[in-house]
Amino acid sequence: MRPFYVTTPIYYVNDKPHIGHAYSTVAADVLARYAKLRGRPTRFLTGTDEHGQKIEEKAKELGKDPQAFVDVMSPPFRDAFVELGCDFDDYIRTTEPRHEEKVQELWKILFAKGDIYLGDYEGWYSVADESFITETELKALDEVTRSKVVRVKEPSYFFKLSAYGDALLEFYEQNPTFVQPEGRFNEVKAFVKEGLRDLSVSRTSFTWGIPVPGDDAHVMFVWFDALTNYMSALGGPAKEGEAPLYDRFWPHGGSDDAQVVHIVGKDILRFHAVFWPAFLLAAGLQPPTQVFAHGWLTINGEKMSKRFGNFIPPGPLVEAFGADVVRYYLMREVGFGQDGDFAHKQVFARYHGELGNGLGNLLQRIVASILKNEFGGAVPAPTEIGDEERELVAVAEKSAAVAAHHLDLVAPHRALDAIFELVAAANRYVDRTAPWALAKAGDKERLATVCYHVLESLRWLSVMLAPFLPSKTADLRAQLGVSALTPEEAMDQWPKAGDFGGLPAGTLTAPAAPLFPRFDPKTEAEILEKLGANKPAEAAKPAKKEKKVEEKKDAPKAEAPKTDDKSEASAPIAFDDFVKVDLRVGLILEAEAVPKSDKLVRCQIDLGEEKPRQVLAGIRKHYDPEALVGKRVVVVANLAPRKMMGLESHGMILAASDTDHGLSVLGLEKEITPGTRVS
Ligand code: ME8
């Protein structure tokens, strides 16, 4: 089986771990656990990035020696990931000798080839982003980041990046899925096509870095150091036979090469998709298989930042909900690759809806009562199988195949959609076959078949959900009376067509407490309060416009459609339900700011009715009222009227927002008549 090596970014230790770091690491853990279940030799790496000016300055500010500082700051990352149930095989710290040695080795290879040369750097450096920036990039920065940018004029070693544009483009051509999602790959290609400048790869104005071999006046640029972690953790670069992990888990150009996936946030894509493969191509080494750039999380609709008081560490969430629920939520709520939101209230919604009512209930309905009362807790052998059973088995097989397909494509949210098709189908099966009625009627034969099919569906779910819910699925398996999953290589445990029926009759189940006990509303409110999730959104808002995430570290601009789309995660509705929402084209005739509100705009909208409608919209921050007049928008026309700031609002204007573009009302491309139904 093809070896699988998955990595996360290594995180800066100038601050504490937060939910954004948790997001990348949980995603990598899900992929690693899945690969192990498929029987693939798997390695999962995470760790911390500990050098550079930012960290040196922070240590100084606290009056600490940088090494002593990073020694204190790194373990909380490791602990946070362990608490989240992440089962990494290695945790690298860039201050470890095993790493420093290999970074110097890579440097020496490039230097010997003439791809690193000594020159002078004069320009801007963003300490916050640990990145050299151009005049144009400087202008685009927000005030806070710009205030931290320094002018640098110092001798510097350069990497001949400009010579590798064509090689990179050829590599991209040959590896069409090297960067995912595809839109981001297009941005990367466009950036390279524009032409590359040589990259400054050393600094002389501070000392907290890996020394440049043979020139102690220089320390390496922190990104040269950091990116090499993916290889140094395997003991590479190394000659064949010197480092078994490197031989096995890094690609070397052979047909049975390992698959290497770097999971990163979209903020650091350019480093991974341009600089890193360029260093490797120059050194005659094979680049990784894929860089997957996931989207950016906001918290309860706000950008996460210490300044806004919504910088959330994973610990309290794990304490409140349990690690599995946090993992599940992160993987389910946001389409991987898209921007999304972490909303505390939504965690409860998914917990109660999907996990409690969906999965937990399925187990509870059968194991805790019927099986115990009717079969002494032992799994009965199925008897005659009918269409209902065949239908359920077909759903199970499809669900396993589709979920595997999506996990192979690094789309965990889609995999969960597919897995929950089986949860829904099994619940429907219980509703339809009504085992209570069968028990009451004394139809033991049919009841045996029904119980068996539900239990076997649950056993399949205990495997397919294991990457997401490692601890809850272990509890589920214990209740089903089946052994724990063994994360051993060469054991393909993922269910496949033809496998349904693997649960041996006679297995003794062990009913226990519900997997997802309900939180009563009072406890729920207390938890939200404790987590600080009840703060009005306004309180957390930035006073000034914040910089875009893409600008964080000179990453390429992202592709246009970046939404906070959560539609993929919501439950399907019937068409009949959709048509209940009366959507109409509206023409804004008048618009004025509502006095004493910094959000509301009062609009008079022509909806093709006798009189214009008054609609209040919370869009003041994004639109000048005058600019709205004459716009055609989409209005929910049958929303019950409600009062805001003492004014009645008779409808709602549809809008969408994301972190980068702010809010946009939905418009129409043609001058469709006001009042026309939207469908
Ligand atoms: O950039 N939403 O480290 P870093 C989603 N040391 N993901 C987020 C996030 C958010 N709001 N905030 C952070 C560095 N992340 C370098 C990396 S790799 C060789 C060196 C995640 O501590 C996301 O994965 O600033 C992002 O890329 C990473 O944390 C940045 O972590």
CATH level 1 class label of the largest domain: Alpha Beta
Radius of gyration (CA) equals 28 Å
**Helical content band:** 40-55%
Distance between the termini: 49 Å
Poorly predicted tracts of residues: 536-547, 550-569
Which small-molecule species are bound to the chains here? ligand ME8
Proportion of residues in extended strands = 15-25%
The assigned structural class equals alpha/beta
| Physical arrangement of strands within the biggest beta sheet | 3-2-1-12-13-7
The CATH homologous superfamily name of the largest domain equals HUPs
CATH fold title of the largest domain: Rossmann fold
- What's the average pLDDT? 90
Record field, number of beta strands: 25
Envelope shape:
globular
- How many helices? 24
Judging by the overall fold, what is the CATH architecture of the largest domain? 3-Layer(aba) Sandwich
Total individual domains? 3
Task: Profile the largest sheet.
Answer: 6 strands, parallel
